[in-house]
Design brief:
Elements lengths: L15 H33 L4 H29 L9 H31 L5 H41 L7 H8 L2 H4 L1 H38 L5 H33 L5 H25 L1 H20 L1
Length: 317
């Protein structure tokens, strides 16, 4: 959604060509990684005729990230190569509305995944937590449904906001001039800025609390097993889980900061300040999905199998 506030990123005279090149590499790598996750889960769904809660979240997360990167690249490509296509109604509105939907769903599905891992793996004796652990599989569908509703709401608001701004400015000939001089940001976009910032902050706080609780539980359990000289596979599994959650927490925090900085700089037309931020945003979906693959035995096994087949074919040539 943030791209709709900063079309100046793709100015040929600044960092447009470089941004487009890097975005293309990140987008296609990320799309391949998330397409792999979706494909493996869909194949397993067809075979087993069912999906567990973890797989439901991963499937929707992979789909949202694939679509997010796809629409982000489309916007970057049109802005750099065919900028006047975005002036054709309603291409800009549709692209930015779809981008906003999948960007928001990406954040909320990630938060749902963290909440699920926290409740499913963490071990607290609190009665309310035990109740959540029993009911979490039933709650997942509602959490995902709520995330979709939030995302659709944001996408519709972004579409309507851009559409109103465009309809009030029919006599423009330059995309950059249109955005910079004829649209009053405070009139059209500040409410969307506030809503976006609020939703990003809420999802970030959900991730922070879930990750901290889970890390504390894993660390406490690991110390207990080491004290009792219980060096088994469970200790190794807990250590791996801690590293995975910690890496996710660090990456999500960096991505959250980049999203907030995008909102801050969106009205200041400084491509230099936002260039690195924009690159981080498009690296996150691919890198985190890769971490999820190696944290999931089923996905990791499928990936290693594919890589071994590719290696064998390459050696045979």
């Amino acid at each position: 959604m943030e791209a709709c506030y900063s079309p100046q990123l793709y100015n040929v005279t600044s960092y447009g060509a470089t941004t487009l090149a890097i975005t293309t590499l990140e987008a296609f790598a990320g799309m391949w990684i998330n397409a792999f996750i979706v494909s493996v889960l869909c194949i397993g769904w067809i075979k087993k005729k069912t999906l567990n809660s973890n797989e439901k979240i991963l499937l929707l997360l992979g789909l949202s990230r694939f679509c997010f990167l796809c629409f982000s690249w489309i916007y970057a490509f049109l802005s750099e190569i065919y900028p006047y296509c975005l002036l054709v109604h309603p291409i800009l509105q549709l692209v930015q509305g779809a981008y906003s939907i999948f960007n928001c769903s990406n954040l909320w599905f990630s938060a749902c995944l963290c909440v699920f891992y926290c409740i499913k793996i963490a071990n607290f004796r609190n009665s309310f937590f035990i109740y959540l652990k029993v009911k979490i599989d039933r709650m997942v569908s509602w959490l995902l449904f709520g995330s979709v509703i939030f995302s659709l709401t944001v996408g519709i608001l972004v579409y309507n906001t851009i559409d109103k701004a465009v309809c009030k400015n029919h006599n423009f000939t330059c995309l950059r001039k249109f955005w910079k001089e004829t649209i009053r940001t405070e009139e059209h976009f500040y409410p969307i800025f506030f809503l976006t910032g609020f939703l990003h902050t809420t999802s970030f706080m959900v991730v922070i609390f879930s990750a901290v609780f889970l890390l504390f539980s894993l660390w406490r359990h690991k110390c207990k097993m080491q004290t009792n000289s219980m060096k088994d596979l469970s200790t190794e599994a807990h250590t791996k889980a801690m590293k995975s959650i910690l890496s996710f927490l660090v990456m999500y925090s960096i991505n959250f900061v980049s999203l907030i900085l995008t909102l801050v700089y969106s009205t200041k037309y400084t491509s230099q300040a936002i260039f690195t931020v924009y690159i981080i945003q498009h690296a996150y979906p691919g890198i985190h999905s890769l971490i999820l693959i190696f944290s999931n035995p089923k996905l990791e096994k499928a990936l290693l199998k594919i890589l071994s087949c590719v290696k064998c074919k390459f050696l045979m040539k």
